[in-house]
Amino acid sequence: MKQRNFLAARIDQWSREHPRLLDLIMAGSMWLVFGLSSALAGLPAFLVATAAILPLAVRRRFPATVLAWSAAAFAVQLVVVPIPLPADIAQAIVVYTVAAHVASVPIRLLALGAALTGSVLAGFRWSTPPAYEANVFKNAVFLGILFVLVWVIGNLVRGRQANMSALRAASARLEEGRLQHERFVAQRQRVAAAREIHDIVAHCLTVVIVQADGAEYAAEHARPWERGDAGTVFATIGRTARSALAEVRGVIEVLRDADGPDEAHGARLGIAELRQLVDSVRATGLAVEVEAEPSVFDDVPPAIRFTVLRVVREALTNVLKHAGPHATAHVVVARTPGGIMVRAEDDGVGSRRADATASPPGYGLDGMRERLRAMGGVLEAGPRSGRGFVVDATIPVAALSPATP
């Protein structure tokens, strides 16, 4: 039984893939069976049967034309052949074809009307005495019911095909939407990775440049050159470079993680990592003061912890790059009724630095704004009154709280 079902499925698939070839085979087979058997009623019957059956080979390509030809052939049959023929089954197939494959409602109704008219005329032509009127009625009703059923089945098939086409189109749209979503997610991951790598590299290279510039100045001007000072400088450079390499590798690895870099690293971040970040900046010679309660990260989602540290790091990187020599920085991380507030300010020359050696503008502030926007936060940055630059960031903790649906 399973083998039969498998064979039937293969036949059905083949027929759907080769509809024209199937029509040709069907027309040829019907002509061999019904056309040749109609020859028993004489040559006119054979010619009429052939004219009715052979056009079925193109019934799906030209259904309206085949309908008109079939109606003409049946009219000729009623005139020259006084009896029904086995080939008359072709008329029912034509009605079914029009109902199943023609979208125009008027043409489908025309096919039904022609079939019912033919049923009445056939009832008069093929009925015999003594109960002539009763036979006419019975034959017309029987043929009419038969053609109505065939027409209804054809319309049901057409409706099913239309539904299947709509489902296939909807499935294609859903698949395209899924692919677009995947491309969008991949693009977001690439943008997030690029932003993380930018932040990491910008911060660490700034530290390395400051240390290298200090070492170069000391080597040229300081007397005598202290080995211990040199060792400290190179140790800071090496530690910073190794940290940058490890973080870049981590960003690349977490691209395979559905939770993303924030979730991957944020759960392990806290006040200790904040102080470690500040210490690495202090090693460059920048004086940094930090105000942060030990419990500032308690009950804070990992993504927000990660964002807070990134904002602090980018702000201190900007101080190293733009504040000028002898600047000091002050960082505040505090809880507010609605979330976490981060403030990083310095007393350097800030954005008003105009000498020729000033660093070109980067993408740090834009990156922070994008990151905070994703968290529902706000970033404000600009020069302080007097001297220096200030960065204010607020992040609503409730926006990403685990309790939020």
Automatic annotation (TrEMBL):
InterPro entries: DUF7134 (IPR055558), HATPase_dom (IPR003594), Sensor_HK_TwoCompSys (IPR050482), Sig_transdc_His_kin_sub3_dim/P (IPR011712). It comes from the Bacteria. Residues 308-398 form the Histidine kinase/HSP90-like ATPase domain. Its EC number is 2.7.13.3. PANTHER family: NITRATE/NITRITE SENSOR PROTEIN NARX-RELATED, NITRATE_NITRITE SENSOR PROTEIN NARQ. This is histidine kinase. Keywords: ATP-binding, Kinase, Membrane, Nucleotide-binding, Phosphoprotein, Transferase, Transmembrane, Transmembrane helix, Two-component regulatory system. It catalyses: ATP + protein L-histidine = ADP + protein N-phospho-L-histidine. It is an enzyme of class 2 (transferase). Pfam families: DUF7134 (PF23539), HATPase_c (PF02518), HisKA_3 (PF07730). The keyword Nucleus does not apply. Residues 192-258 form the Signal transduction histidine kinase subgroup 3 dimerisation and phosphoacceptor domain. Residues 12-161 form the DUF7134 domain.
